[in-house]
Design a protein that fits this description.
The protein has 440 residues and is of the alpha+beta class. 30% of the residues lie in helices and 21% in strands.
Length: 440
Amino acid sequence: METELDLEGVRTVRLQYADLHGITRGKDIPVGQLAGAAEHCVHFVAAVMTVDLAHNVVAGFETGFEDIAARPDLSTLVRVPWEPGVATCIADLEQVATHEPYGVDGRAALKRIVAEYAELGLTPVIAPELEFYLCEPDTTTREGWRRYVGTDSNVYTVGPRADPRGILQRMMHAADDLGLEVLAGNHEYGRGQFEINIRHTTAVESADRAFRLKWLVKELAAQEGLLATFIGKPWNDDEGSGFHVHLSLCDADGTNRCGDPAGEDGLSGVTRQFVAGVLEHAPGMMALFNPTVNAYRRLHPEALVPTQVSWGHDNRFTFVRVPRERGAATRVEVRVGDGSANPYLAYTAALAAGLDGIRRELEPPAPLSGLIYALPEEEQGAPLPATLPDALAALAADEILCNAVGRKLVDTFTTIKEYELNRFRQWVTDWEFREYSHHL
């Protein structure tokens, strides 16, 4: 077997893939088994793709929990910088009997939509922006954790005051060594909140990088005795964590097709159509970009998070923001994502929506500027789903997105989320006791 990676000194290969939550699942295999795994796959019980976050298997009973096959994608093989002797490889999931893509694999869904762009001579290029909090153990708090840095106003600061243990630097260097092409890192607006920016690349590789960045951050935090969390709103008294997605479309020569000096606002027709498609399907995208109950706690105007279906030029209140750069840097940014989103599913949803706009040659409404919430209500755009149940209903009603992502995947995702919602509805919160017990 030949790969691009020199495996000298590697004893273990960590096979990885994302479940529907975006969690890293897989197995460690001896390096000598890698060739056999690439040819014959490694098997897993399909229940791993139908489990909720409370360890309940909630779907798949009708098939008797058959096996699924994981085939290493050797192009993703890379050494793990912080574990000597270990390499990691992302796997594609397949049906055992036919070796066709497994219907509940987000990476397979993304590959399908990318292939549809290729039929139009277009290649989507994407860069993710992911925010996260670092937390230290604290048994005196309700959650059992406190913010790693509790000082106010550390936004866009670096060094020991913002990161006293130098953890961000170690994460950045490890991400670079892993091949994620780090551009920058900094303390974000929240106390103990950080962001690591990585370079744009083609859609599947970009999703792989986002998936690996989240895994890396959580792994290195755990080594420090910390908790890293990407959930949208971990604290009542602090900022939310987002997942912003920057997208552009290139032709076969690698030229960015999004800009056009002769076009309106310097944008090409295909870019305007893409934006129109994203706006058309914005409600249905919400469940895949904001897949938890918690995600909707950060969706309010003061948080620079969109609550309406709108777009604008360099306007952070809008669902789609078009930065002012043109030429090779022309792109659109979908700003609604929550840090907990599965990048493969979020990318697939955004690209499917944009593709529908291109195929139907949709035209977006007028861009909004300034404080859009000061505009007359009818000009602000339709409201986005404000809860997870509403978002799931919007996804179910969107035939284009459901078909693009895959019916089996959407049905499994929805079943897991409905079970999660039922558990949430039955849980008594500390707020309820504090609010009512003394008086009622």
